[in-house]
Amino acid sequence: MKNDSSKKVLLIIPSRIMVRGIEGVFSDLGEFRVEGILSDISRTSETRLKNMDADLIIIDPVVFDYATRPSGRSYIAEYTDAAVVALQTIVMEDDVWKQYDEVISIYDAPPVIIRKLRTALSAHQELPKPDSHELSSREKEILICVAKGMLNKEIADLYNISIYTVITHRKNITRKTGIRTVAGLTVYALLNNLIDSSSVE
Fold this sequence. Notes:
Elements: E1 7-12, H1 16-29, E2 32-38, H2 43-51, E3 56-59, H3 72-77, E4 83-88, H4 94-98, E5 102-105, H5 110-125, H6 137-147, H7 152-159, H8 163-177, H9 182-191
Parallel strand pairs: 1-2, 1-3, 3-4, 4-5
Helix pairs in contact: 6-8, 6-9, 7-8
């Protein structure tokens, strides 16, 4: 029985067995339903990512090659604002897992998987939503760091937030200010007295 209030999930998982397992968990426990399935990241997948109105994406990072895995979450963020949960099927570096809103393991019990998906959704919904052109205090802090030449990872470590959260703040800053370059954002920070010229590298 399909629950109309259930959350829509897009799976980006190459293994049909894993897909069937997740569909089974959702079918048994309700609350979430699979709205679409992609087996890889390709041009066709990008189009479906853009057009899919999913609340949540579950992705197995093996769909990315070794070089792009540490920035896989950022790649997904280019196409959708959905929360993104990684499915851990093999061992990877910690940096790969840290970027996602949550990580589920193939060994997690169904209730644990559902709890983690709920956590990911609720944390994702608490991110600031773009509605005004006024920068929030956190966006100003991120802007100052960007103007000082800090990398996303350094900013994430400084404020103990995920790299994805930093990227989301940076997107909001760009949208609100209309400025896309680091140099332009630095000038903006200087003109708005957020930093002084001695603190710019």
